[in-house]
Amino acid sequence: MSAILIFLALVTAVAGWWLARQRLMSKPWLEAGPVNAFPETEASLLHPAKLGLGVFLAVVGALFALFISAYFMRMVYADWQAAPMPRLLWLNTGMLLLASVALQCAVVAAHKGQVDNLRLALLVGALTSVAFLGGQLLAWRDLAAGGYFAAENPAVSFFYLITAMHGLHIIGGLLVLGRTNVRAWRGERPAKLTLTTELCAMYWHVLLVVWLVLFAVLAGWAADFVDICRQLLS
Amino acid sequence: MAIALVLVLVVVGSVLFHALSPWWWTPIASNWGYIDSTLVATFWITGAVFSAVVLFMAYCVYRFRHKEGQKAAYEPESRKLESWLTLVTAVGVAAMLAPGLYVWKQFVTVPKDATEVEVVAQQWQWSYRLPGADGKLGTSNARLINADNPLGINPEDPNGQDDVVVEAADLHLPIDKPVKMLLRSIDVLHDFYVPEFRAKMDMVPGMVTYFWFTPTRTGTFEVLCAELCGTGHGFMRGIVMVDTEQDYTSWLQQQSTFAQLTGPAKVGALADQAKAVAAME
Amino acid sequence: MVDVTPHGADLIPPAEVGEMELYHPHSWWTKYVFSQDAKVIAIQYSGTALAIGLVALVLSWLMRLQLGFPGTFDFITPEAYYQFMTMHGMIMVIYLLTALFLGGFGNYLIPLMVGARDMVFPYVNMLSYWIYLLAVLVLVASFFAPGGPTGAGWTLYPPQAILSGTPGGTGPGIILMLVSLILFIIGFTMGGLNYVVTVLQGRTRGMTLMRLPLTVWGIFTATVMALLAFPALFVACVMMLFDRAIGSSFFMPAIVEMGEQSPHNGGSPIMFQHLFWFFGHPEVYIVALPAFGIVSDLISTHARKNIFGYRMMVWAIVGIGALSFVVWAHHMYVSGMHPYFGFFFATTTLIIAVPTAIKVYNWVLTLWRGDIHLTIPMLFALAFIVTFVNGGLTGLFLGNVVVDVPLSDTMFVVAHFHMVMGVAPIMVVFGAVYHWYPKMTGRMLNEWMGRFHFWVTFIGAYLIFFPMHYVGLVGVPRRYPELGDTAFIPPSVHTLNEFITVAALTVGFAQLVFLFNLFWSIRHGKEAGDNPWRATTLEWQTAGTPPPHGNFGKELPVVYRWAYDYSVPGAAEDFIAQNDPGPATQGGPA
Ligand code: HEM
Ligand SMILES: [Cu+2]
Ligand SMILES: [Cu+2]
């Protein structure tokens, strides 16, 4: 359960940092009076949707940290055999990276009010994401063609399971990104699209990071890395 | 008002129930008297806290119940009182934890001279295996299990040939000899539980778990399964008999070893199977 | 009192107004059925939870009948018993208590108490309820599936959960259970995002964190925990579905089932237990923390005294929430995991007892020198303290690793967790319903029915579960449909079991009185007015009762003080509402 504990330690650190600024040591019964005395501890001006997405991404992070924990726990058993990594995954990773970059460009364009750039960036973001998903499907086919099915080898089961989970999250994101695209191409003003573009970008960045970590775990580098750290420590 | 009285009755009733009830643990038959002592100490501490808190509450309800014109005091906190209470609680908790961990240390440290006894659980019966003359148990593997080899003992392993197999029958143990119970399951989770021994442990397919104890009293004790294992769980019973050295030896002589049970005719077939399984893994 | 002067004229704009467009229902359907109003959603959640909870209650009667009078009821076979037990446990913990505290009380109270017009994402909030309903329906469907619902125990431990020796193991029963749990988690996450963000961003002006009522603190912390803990159950369920549906070997080792070699190989049943309890232990506090918060407010309001040690209470809630993520393996002391884990988890478990004890002290110290009105909510709050202290103390037996060894998997455990996470939180649920029903309907619940309900429930529940500890101490294992002839179990235990069954049936029927009261008082209850308990928190200061759509009038309330200004010396009344600027303040509401 080390992966999830590390993740939770990070979450706790963020929560602790925030709580530390909320005057938890104050004595509220002595502080009756004007409402605006402690502006820093009131609700912030951050848009609720952004905060909401942030919290959701923490949940997503916990979910994948738990899958990784399970992966590491299962790995130590005798029958474990690493799964082959289809070469295609590198290309897919590139696609997802492109999507992330494109959406970042979209954010910039939206802020600057550049309609054409925004439309283009949003479209590229969506298409590269679809390409990523298609690539993942092809990677599955490669594995299956090599005789690796979900049931026999636990490493392969994990591969199918975890990539499917990640893919489902991308599909969920695509629903929103698709709607944003439709709105942009129907001619809505960039100013009105800023929020949703920003949310999409944030979601994609995090899913990219999640994918990179998952890739490292599934390919076995994470385990190698842990081993090296262990050796350095002992 | 009635509530203050009922709160007092709850405390008095609970204490009386505890003191007078005929329901108490079964007389112990193992070396784990320490566990019982820790449990009793915990009863004293927690019982005192429970009585104190509820009686204090009853007093407050009685003394400070609403009356015409009464006004509550205004006291947001008292750092001193809270610090004291925290400290006292921490000490009380430590007083329970320290002996607990001390005894746990003993519980998980198996003495060197403990004899190994294997318990094999399956839905819904108990079987046992004792190391034969060589004092060693042979290896085993679930994949080797079949009608002729119900415990999956490895026929290739010389240590296993003289193992005594007790299939779906009673287990006997000699008194005053520490035993390490090696626990194995061939299907689902089970748990080897003899109330008089106090110790118990789950049996997990795919691994061997263990606990140790020394029987200190001869007699017949019932084995129950303490981990849900399907519809037969409540009926999965067995018998352990703790014998004097003499009785134990005579019982042991009547048991058959793995080699005797399989017989020369079947050994070949079993060995082939073992090779096949080994190649597969 | 310290006089706090404003930081200057630049007032912070209220975050919520203007940011969020209030949703307006146009038809009966969108107003009462597909409603996005948190208050309606709260009632939908509570109604569904109580309905399915009633099923769990009836199942508990059937189990008790079997335990008290084994062999009398032919239809309660061991299979049936395990199915009842599994469904009872799962429904009570997840579909009743979690849904009721977070989906029910959370939805109703958070926006009102923090001074918001609604949840921040009303549409997602509505979806949350409908997915929850779907989860409940899938669960109910498993009763009618071939082979019946799963009988794997609420812990669903593999391998047995998906094998033929367990009812529903190879039929659809277990699959429906797993799917239902997955749906529940998705639905809950949607709701949970709302509760968290509403507390963070929906607070009205002046509502700083340290002015929040403890109810909000409790529900907020519990929701954060649930958001982080439920994924563990999600992962466990998905992986078990894989093992069951396509034959993978995450949790399934090589086994021989009923004489047949299984196709599985190498999996780890203990891994499932780690995942399950990584969720399962926080789950206990997910149910407990809202109860802690609510009961603090009930005690303070009805004792007309500020909660003692508010700061400590907040710190304890946060501390318990964080610590409860590192104690999970105290459910696994005898699971066969590495024995050295026992040292670590026993220590963390007993450490958690300290902040928990502080909370108990502060509740009782709030009563000290109070002006205690023995209303029904107050009675239930007292009952909560008794049962919670009792259950918490037996937790010290089970948390202290070596003491757990003889007690684990016996009826002692069953008695312990019913006391601490069954009876105690349910007492708070009842107290809270009697407390807030006047706000939800405008009428008080009938007093006499209420008192009858209280006495039977409190005394009865104690009589069920206190003696049950001793059944476990004798050595009777849990999850046994009957004891048969067992040498070490004296006949008196059977008599005790009969007694417990009678008590359980009595308590069960008293709940029907409560249900009747809920419906009867909607029309016939005494008119309550806006603030019958003379309480300080914002939900009692709404524009009307029940609060209208949008909760407050044209302007949101502005908060000037903490939630516990009861019996303030020199004040005209024995309470000052949170939105009361008070005589000492310069400048009125902005
Ligand atoms: C008057 C009310 C209740 C009665 C009479 C009752 C009775 C029972 C009984 C007889 C069992 C089976 C014990 C066994 O054979 O091992 C059981 C199990 C259980 N109950 Fe209750 N119960 C009640 C309320 C609750 C509540 C409110 C909860 C909520 C936390 C709850 C949670 C559970 C759980 C989690 C199990 C374990 C199921 C399992 O072993 O898989 N019960 N209850
Ligand atoms: Cu068993
Ligand atoms: Cu069993």
Automatic annotation (TrEMBL), chain A:
- A GO CC term assigned to this protein in UniProt: plasma membrane
Any signal peptide, and if so, which residues?
none
List where in the cell it is found. Cell membrane; Membrane
Give the keywords, sorted.
Membrane, Transmembrane, Transmembrane helix
Identify the Pfam families for this entry. Answer: COX3
**Ranges of residues in domain Heme-copper oxidase subunit III family profile:** 1-223
Q: How does it sit in the membrane?
A: Multi-pass membrane protein
- The residue ranges crossing the membrane are 53-77, 89-111, 117-138, 158-182, 202-223
What's one GO MF term for it?
Answer: cytochrome-c oxidase activity
Q: Which SUPFAM superfamilies match?
A: Cytochrome c oxidase subunit III-like
Q: Which residues form a coiled coil?
A: none
One GO BP: aerobic electron transport chain
Which family, according to UniProt?
A: Belongs to the cytochrome c oxidase subunit 3 family.
Q: What is this protein called?
A: Cytochrome c oxidase subunit 3
User: Which species?
Assistant: Aminobacter anthyllidis
From TrEMBL, chain B:
What Enzyme Commission number does this protein have? 7.1.1.9
Cellular component, GO, one term: membrane
Catalyzed chemical reaction(s): 4 Fe(II)-[cytochrome c] + O2 + 8 H(+)(in) = 4 Fe(III)-[cytochrome c] + 2 H2O + 4 H(+)(out)
Per UniProt, residues of the Cytochrome oxidase subunit II copper A binding domain are: 112-254
Localization, UniProt: Membrane
| Entry keyword set | Copper, Electron transport, Membrane, Metal-binding, Translocase, Transmembrane, Transmembrane helix, Transport
InterPro entries from the entry?
CcO_II (IPR045187), CcO_II-like_C (IPR002429), Copper_CuA (IPR001505), Cupredoxin (IPR008972), Cyt_c_oxidase_su2_TM_sf (IPR036257)
- Coiled coil ranges: none
An individual GO BP term: ATP synthesis coupled electron transport
Q: How does it sit in the membrane?
A: Multi-pass membrane protein
Q: Which domain of life is it from?
A: Bacteria
Please give the start and end residues of each transmembrane region: 41-62, 83-104
Database matches in SUPFAM superfamilies: Cupredoxins, Cytochrome c oxidase subunit II-like, transmembrane region
Cross-referenced PROSITE patterns: COX2, COX2_CUA
Q: What are this entry's molecular-function GO terms?
A: copper ion binding; cytochrome-c oxidase activity
Q: What is its main location?
A: membrane
Q: State the family it belongs to.
A: Belongs to the cytochrome c oxidase subunit 2 family.
The protein, known as: cytochrome-c oxidase
Query: Organism, per UniProt?
Result: Aminobacter anthyllidis
Q: What is the lineage of its organism?
A: Bacteria, Pseudomonadati, Pseudomonadota, Alphaproteobacteria, Hyphomicrobiales
TrEMBL record, chain C:
Q: In which pathway does it act?
A: Energy metabolism; oxidative phosphorylation
What is any Pfam family matched here?
COX1
User: TM spans, by residue?
Assistant: 40-62, 82-110, 130-154, 174-200, 212-242, 275-296, 308-328, 340-364, 376-399, 411-434, 454-473, 499-520
Localization? Cell membrane; Membrane
Q: Which reaction is this enzyme known to catalyze? A: 4 Fe(II)-[cytochrome c] + O2 + 8 H(+)(in) = 4 Fe(III)-[cytochrome c] + 2 H2O + 4 H(+)(out)
Q: How does it sit in the membrane?
A: Multi-pass membrane protein
Q: Which GO terms describe its cellular component?
A: plasma membrane
What does the UniProt keyword field contain? Cell membrane, Copper, Electron transport, Heme, Iron, Membrane, Metal-binding, Respiratory chain, Translocase, Transmembrane, Transmembrane helix, Transport
Q: Which PROSITE patterns match?
A: COX1, COX1_CUB
Source domain of life: Bacteria
One GO biological process term is: aerobic respiration
Q: What is its main location?
A: membrane
Give the GO molecular function terms: cytochrome-c oxidase activity; heme binding; metal ion binding
Q: Which InterPro entries match?
A: Cyt_c_oxase-like_su1_dom, Cyt_c_oxase-like_su1_sf, Cyt_C_Oxase_1, Cyt_c_Oxase_su1_BS, Cyt_c_oxidase_su1_bac
User: EC number(s) of the enzyme?
Assistant: 7.1.1.9
Q: Which residues form the Cytochrome oxidase subunit I profile domain?
A: 23-560
Under PANTHER family, the record lists: CYTOCHROME C OXIDASE SUBUNIT 1 (PTHR10422)
Q: Which family is this sequence assigned to?
A: Belongs to the heme-copper respiratory oxidase family.
What's this protein's function? Cytochrome c oxidase is the component of the respiratory chain that catalyzes the reduction of oxygen to water. Subunits 1-3 form the functional core of the enzyme complex. CO I is the catalytic subunit of the enzyme. Electrons originating in cytochrome c are transferred via the copper A center of subunit 2 and heme A of subunit 1 to the bimetallic center formed by heme A3 and copper B.
Protein name, UniProt field = Cytochrome c oxidase subunit 1
The scientific name of the source species is Aminobacter anthyllidis
